[in-house]
Amino acid sequence: MISTKRLIFNAATFIPGVASLPPVQRVFKRHSLGTHGTDQARYCYSVWLRHLVSAAASGLDTNPRVVAELGPGDSIGIGIAAVITGAEKYMAFDVVAHANTPRNLSIFDGLVELFRAQSGIPDSSEYPRVGPTLATYEWPARILSAERMRAALDPARLAVIRDSISRTDSRASMIQYRAPWSTDGAVERGTLDLVFSQAVLEHVDGLADVYCAMYEWLKPGAYMSHQIDFKSHGSAREWNGHWAYSDFMWKLVRGKDVWLINREPYSTHVELMQQTGFRVVGEQLVQARSTLTRARLAPKFRAIPDSDLQTTDAFVQAVKPAV
Ligand SMILES: C[S@@+](CC[C@H](N)C(=O)[O-])C[C@H]1O[C@@H](n2cnc3c(N)ncnc32)[C@H](O)[C@@H]1O
User: Whole-model pTM above 0.85?
Assistant: First the structure.
């Protein structure tokens, strides 16, 4: 639940001139920096392998060569895991530069150890709140065959990856990181095999534009893979209490932080994907009881489907149809 102190701070930032004061800017920076999750190699390893194993279950490409990620957070480790397992190019886009080279390198070292050991995928006993969940958390030997991993872990290849992590701002690097970013010209049209995100699309403002951008970036027949968290992120007492705030109240709760949550329920994401041209091929929903009655919903959410009111998290994989 958001504190009264935070509400008063947020309200004050709407007074002309207040938001640009240096101490207020420092508070914005503190709120927006740091995400926790990708600051651990085991988390990055678990998340990448969960997307990959789920792709296999949906009959999708499990050896994507050109990959992009939205909102990598504290490190670009999930993407580094993608590169270690065979991707030739990875581009990451964040609204704030949380990641840095020393942390990325240390995550890389941790990941190499995990892949060399063919460790099992860290499961819900270690990451109870991370999705998607899998039927089995064993090393995915069918996808990451001995032959594929021998080539992937070749010392000369690992040296190139390590070097690329040190120069992610170069357009020539196999690993690139842009923060902040904009959809315009971020990725060349029709060049990606995969675009993915983990706990990001609930934060993105301008969702329609971002879905259109992802559609343009992908090759025909390529896919996207997203885990989305619809919970209130501490903005309300109930897990879905953020849908009870009027637009005015939400403005005060959200304040002027660079990112918080966009409050869009799952049905909006599905609608946007379909409008853009995507075909959903894999879906895993996590549901919880809603203690919020429909009468308490803010007018803009009053007509959302019953399933939205109960959907706390969704994992979705969708394909750009081949022409
Ligand atoms: C909850 S964190 C998740 C970080 C990471 N993916 C993980 O699994 O730990 C949300 C991330 O989304 C980023 N974000 C918010 N709005 C964004 C946008 N419009 N484009 C790209 N990233 C965004 C935030 O800066 C942050 O890195």
Answer: yes
